[in-house]
Amino acid sequence: NPLTLGHGTISWKITDLESKFNINSPEPILQQVLPQALTLMGVAPGEATPIVNSILDWIDPDDQTHVEGAETQFYQGLKPSYVAKNGPIDDISELLLIKGITPEIYYGGAATNFQPNYFSQQRDQFGRPASAAPMITSGLTNLFTPLSDGKVNINTASAEVLQMIPGVDAMIAEAIVGGRSGEDDGSGLMGPYRTVNQLSRLPNLPLPLVGQIAQFCDVRSKTFKVDITATVNGSYTRYFTAILGRNSPRDVQVLSFYWSDPVTPGH
Fold first, then answer.
1. Which residues pair with 252 in a beta bridge?
2. What dihedral angle (degrees, nearest 10) is formed by the CA atoms of 78, 79, 80, 83?
3. Which residue, 48, 141, 38, 146, is CA-closest to 99?
4. Rounded to whole angstroms, how far apart are CA atoms 128 and 58?
5. Cα 91 from Cα 191, distance rounded (Å)
């Protein structure tokens, strides 16, 4: 409910940023996660390679181009021209400046004529397709964040984000999401996961996969985005965004605060 303050009201929405992958993660992690994200979104492998490598070129500090990637020389040929960032992404919308990233890939809806390959389909005991693996309809902006502590929170991440972890398919991702529901009764068998190792309570989840997930995930969040709507006299409305960093329950710092656009669901 909105908070009444003087002649106006204030409402807000808090989102933990560890529910997404950090787009500024080390290159070895991005080389695993980005191709998986694009494949699940329906981007053909041949089209994904230049996108992945262009993102890596945008972030890395040098001017050496990855295979089919893009550095400043490419962007100087555009009108208007600009230079590669060669540094961490500060705002996720920077992705729209990078070679190969279309609005459809950024916002979602990239999968227009996608045909699942053999390995992306659930198959029965005879090797026949049982059902096509569900595709992610979200865009890169729904899956990645430029700010977080670097690990994904398995208690808040969507099934779509979890599917980007190597070895996690749609069924496992849904099982992880379903397994964290309910109230914690103190046994550790229900409710939010207290440790990543508690994923082992899920049936048929291989123990080595739990270790694999632990390389990418945690069970807590430290970075939060607060979308604020302030209305004065019922007619004048402004939107603000604050980024908060939580070091401890009593130590929460404001990392940034700025005017923003109205909140778009999923962003």
1. 246
2. 10
3. 48
4. 41
5. 33
If pLDDT is split at 50, 70 and 90, which confidence band does 54 have? very high
φ and ψ at residue 212, rounded to 5 degrees: -65, -45
Ramachandran region of residue 131, left (φ > 0), alpha (ψ -120 to 50) or beta?
A: beta
pLDDT in tens, 67-119: 999 999 999 999 999 999 999 999 999 999 999 999 999 998 754 433 343 33
Structure tokens at 142: 């729904």
Q: What is the pLDDT of residue 101?
A: 95
pLDDT digits (tens, 9 = 90+) for 185-194: 666 667 899 9
CA distance 170 to 160: 8
Per residue in 198-252, pLDDT (tens digit) is 999 998 888 899 999 999 999 999 999 999 999 998 889 999 999 999 999 899 9
Residue 182: which region, alpha, beta or left (left: phi > 0; alpha: psi -120 to 50)? left
User: Residue 12 and residue 229: Cα distance in Å, rounded?
Assistant: 6
- Please count the other Cβ atoms lying within 10 Å of the Cβ belonging to residue 210: 17
Alpha-carbon distance 19 to 153, whole Å? 5
Chain length of the chain: 267
Over its C-alpha atoms, the chain yields an Rg (Å, rounded) of 20
